[in-house]
Amino acid sequence: KDFDFGLVGLGVMGRNFILNVADNKFKAFGYDLDPEKVSALIEEGGNPDQVNATSDLSTFVGALSTPRKIMLLVPAGKIVDQVIESLLPHLDQGDIIIDGGNSFYTDTDRREAYLKDKGLHFFGSGVSGGAKGARRGPSIMPGGDKEAYEHVRPIFEAVAAKYKGEPCVAYLGPKSAGNYVKMVHNGIEYAMMQLTSEIYDLLKKSADLSNDELHEVFSSWNQGRLQSFLVEITSEIFLQKDDLTDARLVDMILDKAKQKGTGKWTSQNAMDLGIPVPTIDMAVSMREISALKDERVKADELYDRPAVQHIEKAELIELAEKALYFSFILSYAQGLNQLAEASKEYGYELNMSQIAKIWRAGCIIRAGLLADIADAFEANPGLTNLLLAPSFVKQVQETLPAVRETVAFAAKSGVPVPGLFSALSYFDAFTSSKLPLNLIQAQRDHFGSHTYERIDREGIFHTEWGA
Ligand code: 6PG
């Protein structure tokens, strides 16, 4: 009964996470219905007094010290509820269940209330960083029951990624704050991935960069202000040889992107909150368009495309670097704006600077840029939109001519860059003191007497148009 930490779900993430816990001198016990996963963990763990596992639930629960700390790393959805139900008869009052998966935030709120009634603690915690992150140090985003989190804190702080020695984990706020922040993290992840793929497309089609050259460009960018995990792995991807043919693997992969739903949830919820996140929306839409492969192939035959315009390699690389940097900033700006609003709406009490800080290492969207973002929110904790931070004005301004040129060039060449275009249009709209939506108000009042406000006097007005 002396194991410090229990983990349910010994898939890739679970196995890596539990080994990380054991490396950090906590005794960890795993549970999975699949005996093969159980024996694989025991074998890899080496010392059964440090890390052990079972397919028997009562052995699992019985091995843990109280209050038991049991983390679930199972697919989001019904399985989480099923695992909770199966654990219930074995648990004691005060035990703690942590959901480390990408659960939808309202599910977390429901589960917390349900388990509270039974005298159990439950909280949701985002975990980012993929398999390697889980093994060597993920970014961890816990929320919910603070008292329960305190019991788990030493373990999470030990296993989390470190940024200059600081653990990339922090208690984020009450209720489902942890899962919500992780959801938006994933929305930003979708946007950054879409933007990277657009820049790749342009470099390849308009300046004929080879995979070796693409590797060089992305790895040199990764040494500069674009330094980030996604740029780093992108540079590696171009070098990977295919096992089955002589080609590079990236050229043999079908252009249909899958998704598990977190990006879509981010967009859906942003709509509910009335917060525009068009670059995230566009990233979701592009995965959907990518899935329509058969129709795309037919449509491609029906329409002529403009001849792709060519441009000097060095010139396009310089434009593309600025365009990517600008649109990464805009992706964070939109996602963080959504978090600021969600914090008010759902009472999450989020500390935006702290969120940027725990994203600086371990997670998929980690990037050098996040240190500047953390500073901007620290300087002004009430900041809602990064574009309003004085420290960002100069760096955004400096990229703009290149962004406009890149978008115009792509449009003339028929290369789709909707993510980049959405970021630029969002920027142009957000920085316009006057938009043409006075006309929309006039139309609404014309056809439906929906009324309008005026620029020169207070009040609500209606006009009998054309009268
Ligand atoms: C992470 C990732 C991870 C997510 C994958 C796949 O932070 O480690 O966000 O949680 O599962 O990114 O997501 P999609 O299948 O939706 O692309």
Automatic annotation (TrEMBL):
The EC number(s) this enzyme carries: 1.1.1.44
Reaction catalyzed: 6-phospho-D-gluconate + NADP(+) = D-ribulose 5-phosphate + CO2 + NADPH
One MF annotation (Gene Ontology) recorded for this entry: phosphogluconate dehydrogenase (decarboxylating) activity
Domain 6-phosphogluconate dehydrogenase C-terminal: 178-466
Binding site for substrate: N102, S128, G129, G130, H185, N186, Y190, K260, R287, R444, H450
Keyword Oxidoreductase: yes
Subunit structure: Homodimer.
Family: Belongs to the 6-phosphogluconate dehydrogenase family.
Record's protein name: 6-phosphogluconate dehydrogenase, decarboxylating
Organism: Algoriphagus zhangzhouensis
